[in-house]
Amino acid sequence: MRCRRPFPCRADRGKPPSMSARTSPAALRNREPIAAALAPALPAKGRVLMVAEGSGEHAVYLARRFPALTWLPSDPDEGARDSIAAHRRNADLPNLKAPVALDASAPHWPVQHAEAITCINMIHISLWAATEGLMVGAARCLPPGGLLYLYGPYREAGKTLAASNAAFDADLRARNSEWGLRDLSAVEHLAGQHGLRLTQRIDMPANNLSLFFRRA
Question: For residues 151 and 120, is the Cβ–Cβ distance under 8 A?
């Protein structure tokens, strides 16, 4: 079963866990398709808040790919933030900021404003409250027209779930009964309740989707 989030990631050998940069095979596979999808949608300048960034590999790759933007990674997990910090030290990119502790489901975020927000492979490996909090926080932080970008696998009405996604969904639910692939219609409806409109949907490799929401 392939990993879509970095919780089984491998830490660099020979380093204390708190100082280790984790690696995620999924991040290495999908970072280029994600960057290509994001390229025409990102603002020309400003801050991009990365919610549930995980290992930090997307942060480094995207900060290097889009140097005119300031990238602010976040994650609620201390080990993930340590990994992000280690990757950041190794990359030494001036537009990649130190990671912040941010729980999407929390009523208050440590970040008040961003021109764009990315959230990669979180919604299916978290409680629904995290998705609710993500929409509330995005509506609060984004300016009119600001981008909320979601990436991951979803269920879609009228479409048969790919075998790999069905197996992945079953594995997630076995780990936690409140995890699992979400119905795209439910996510879109929730976003709409907070003034976020789905403006673009792109089919991605490995039966994933790129979803682009814009704040009204």
Answer: yes
Please answer whether residues 56 and 88 qualify as being in contact, where contact means their C-beta atoms are separated by less than 8 angstroms.
yes
What integer pLDDT is reported at residue 16 of this predicted model? 44
| Residue type, position 164, single letter | S
Angstrom CA distances, 57 to 74, 81, 83, 145, 156, stand at 12, 12, 9, 27, 29
Amino acid identity at 104: A
Whole-angstrom Cα distance, residue 192 to residue 56? 29
CA–CA gap between residue 120 and residue 143 (Å, rounded):
21
Provide the pLDDT for residue 19.
56
Query: CA-CA distances (angstroms) from residue 84 to 168, 210, 214?
Result: 26, 23, 27
- Given a contact cutoff of 8 angstroms between Cβ atoms, the answer to whether 182 and 125 are in contact is no
Nearest to 124, CA basis, from 50, 59, 176: 176
Output the pTM of the full model. Answer: 0.91
Backbone phi, psi, residue 72, to 5°: -120, 100
